[in-house]
Amino acid sequence: MKTKQKTMELTFTRTIPATPAEVFGAWMDPKHPGHPWTGAKKLVFDGKVDGLFYFLHVTDDERPLPHYGRFITIDRNKRVQCGWMSPFTDGRESLVTVTFEKKGGDTLLTLTHANLPDDEDGRLHDEGWRDCLDGFVEPFAASSAAR
């Protein structure tokens, strides 16, 4: 009998000095810095509902780290949801949901990654998403500071 693996969910928020439309546009632009696919050796990105994405990072010791998934929901300027698989999801499709909420002149970006294995591999997503989101916010912060 197969036992059900325990899962976990991670949630991250960032306040970004831009409108929801600007932040959403950057999230759906694979050339904007700070995405998980930034610096990928190979990238396929079809940013529409039922569109697929694939990106390949290679570690310093030449180990391939393929990530892939599908866009499930795209609600312009409000929400993006995608299925997500990688060597760190234990063969299961996890679920990444990103929302964009207007907060005064800023946008509150909330990213939730659900159905991750509750183990060391699943917990690696914590640092990965923190680094990714910090890089994603940086160009907005720099642009805001320059005004």
The arrangement of helices and strands along the chain is EHEEEEEEH
Write down the overall geometry. globular
Tell me the radius of gyration: 16 Å
Q: Give the biggest sheet.
A: 7 strands, antiparallel
Unreliable stretches (pLDDT < 50, length at least 5) are none
Strand order of the largest sheet: 1-7-6-5-4-3-2
The helix-and-strand class reads alpha+beta
Strand content: 35-45%
User: How many strand units?
Assistant: 7
What is the helix fraction of residues, given as a range? 10-25%
Q: How would you characterize this protein structure?
A:
With 147 residues, the protein is α+β, with helices and mostly antiparallel strands. The chain is built from two helices and seven strands; from the N terminus they run βαββββββα. Strands 1-7-6-5-4-3-2 form a seven-stranded antiparallel beta sheet. Strand 5 (79-85) and strand 6 (94-103) form a beta hairpin. The radius of gyration is 16 Å and the shape is globular.
Short descriptors:
globular, 147 residues, 7 strands, 7-stranded antiparallel beta sheet, alpha+beta, 24% helix
Describe the protein's topology.
Blueprint: E1 7-16, H1 20-27, E2 42-45, E3 52-58, E4 64-75, E5 79-85, E6 94-103, E7 106-117, H2 120-146
Antiparallel strand pairs: 1-7, 2-3, 3-4, 4-5, 5-6, 6-7
Short description:
The protein has 147 residues and is α+β, with helices and mostly antiparallel strands.
